[in-house]
Write a structure and sequence with these properties.
Radius of gyration: 37 Å
InterPro entries: Beta-lactam/transpept (IPR050515), Beta-lactam/transpept-like (IPR012338), MecA_N (IPR007887), NTF2-like_dom_sf (IPR032710), PBP_dimer (IPR005311), PBP_dimer_sf (IPR036138), PCN-bd_Tpept (IPR001460)
CATH class of the largest domain: Alpha Beta
Keywords: Membrane
CATH architecture of the largest domain: 3-Layer(aba) Sandwich
CATH topology of the largest domain: Beta-lactamase
Largest sheet: 5 strands, mixed
Protein name: Penicillin-binding protein
Structural class: alpha+beta
Number of helices: 23
CATH superfamily of the largest domain: DD-peptidase/beta-lactamase superfamily
Pfam family, one: MecA_N
Distance between the termini: 127 Å
Subcellular location: Membrane
Oligomer: single chain
Number of domains: 3
Low-confidence stretches: none
Shape: elongated
Strand content: 15-25%
Number of strands: 25
Length: 665
Amino acid sequence: MKKKTIIIIAAVAVLLVAVGSVFGFQQWNEAKIQERKELAAKEWVTALKEQGFDKIAELVTAESLEKAGYTKESIVEKYKAIFGGIGVSNMEIDYEIDEEDTLEYIATFDTVLGTISDIHYKTKLVESGEEYKVSWTAELIFPSMLSDDKIRYTVDEASRGEIVDRNGTELALNTITYQAGVVPKDLGEGEARTTKLDNIAKQLGITVEFIEGQLGQGWVQDEHFVPLKTLPYGADTPKIEGVQYQQVGTRAYPLREAAAHLTGYVGEVNAEDIEKDPTLQAGDVIGRTGLELAFEKELRGQNGGEIYIETANGDRRATIQKIEKQDGKTIEVTIDANLQQTAFDALENAAGSTVVMEPKTGNLLALVSKPSYNPNQFVVGISQSQYDAYSNDEDKPFISRITTRYAPGSTFKPITAAIGLESGATTVDEVHQIAGLQWQKDDTWGNYRISRVSETASVNLRTALVKSDNIYFAQEALEMGEETFTEGLNKLTFGENYGLPLTMEPAQISNDETFGSEILLADTSYGQGQLLMSPIQMATTFSLLANEGVLTYPKLITDSETKTKEVFKKETIDTLKPMLVEVVTSTEGTAHDLNGVGDIAAKTGTAELKKAQGERGVENSLVTVFDANDSGYLAVSVVEDHRKVGKTATELIKPVIQYLELLTQ
């Protein structure tokens, strides 16, 4: 090849390499530029989503900020004031950058009024040194907004829904109460003022220091009413020198202690509540316990209102969000308010619970736990001394005994009898010859013996139910054997969750999957051992006695469906029912105190809680009563430590049955 040709080829090669290098550099440079644009957009979006307002000031161009009339400090304050004021949270943003460096994004976020969707924003990304920044205007806060505009909002508060009983009687309602306060000019001066404040503090159960703090607020003037204490619903307004009263809205519970564990109560939100739910605002009230908590969403409803842009002249420029309020729903429960009060009063000074149910429908007519507390005190802010009085009460009024699990005692014997009859292990005519008041199977039981109250030599099923013979049922369970007995128990609702709006552990047969001993099997037959059931679970289980062997699940909301399951044959219950009537009518019957109250069947029980064999423990008294005529009602009552009370559950439930008899006539 000629030298000249070689030189030309070399030159062309060098040129191609040079051109390629330039082209490659351009591509690399464009990619880097695009990366910087993407980074600027991502940082901007992230700062908005995370409300990193301090970062925002660094992401916008100085020129655009100056043109809008803002500084780095003032733009941060602007965002904080607006986003904080209307409760912006949970922001989601989709964005893109076009070929002309326009950043477009769509934002969706929550405010105090609810969710705002698809707010469109548009701005330019501008090269600033080696970075790209956002060209900022006030329209990046909200479209159509100008630099000197403000964001305003109004709230149309939704009314909280009420809780009513089956007849429409209010169990939880919105009403008024009274707020005690003072007008500074009426307090006088010097010693007279000191005397008045001392008396006011004493009468209202607050401190002089608290009163002085209220009076020392910046807005207070001589003729202003200064609130000191909101009184619970139904409280008196005593005449106190220097004190005036004004009406304020409140949540109220007319049955007070009688339904506190059912209704629960509301309270003002705190910082933690607002952090969990940014739609809440200071001063809002939410359900804290009971039905108020379980149905918080339905009861609270949805506030309405409007968020809008206001011009410097006070005119409305544009509406950002407008929501119509939705008042809370009324929750109608199956409870009968009059029966609830009657059942509460009937327990007198006892610690215990009474549950009344319709066996055919599952409707819970009364759910009583005693002792109790006044929920109205918690709505307005209970004082420390009042709270301490409840907390230090040895009978624990805050415990909901409606859902507390107890050993059902001898009230469970009809269930054991039904299992025995259907398995063939138990017959009506079979007679057990039993000597004495104590019995054990054999020496393998050691010192453990089963006791009974009545010494009867010949015991059949009828006698065992009427006189409540523990030994008879223990022997029947041992004859059935663990497998047969457990199979029968598993037809019930042990381990099941009823789906009620109440917190309740499932009923249990024993601590483990098996009994593990003959003693535990025997004890379980008469409702002790490790058997645990709440009064609601007892009522549910015993509904099959009043309902021809069909168990009806409990329900508390009137429009919920009735759910049932067939457990025993009608013939089995027809065999047992006359015997349970005799528990009342027979002079030997353990529920004879109820004879003459109505056409009823019953089963009593005593569950002894003792630490060791041979010692006498605390005894809980129980009773199950149902309408033997048309199964209109069933009631279960538990009285803790009845010897301390001096009355049994059977004695105390009498007014409840009398009321139910009138109700079903």
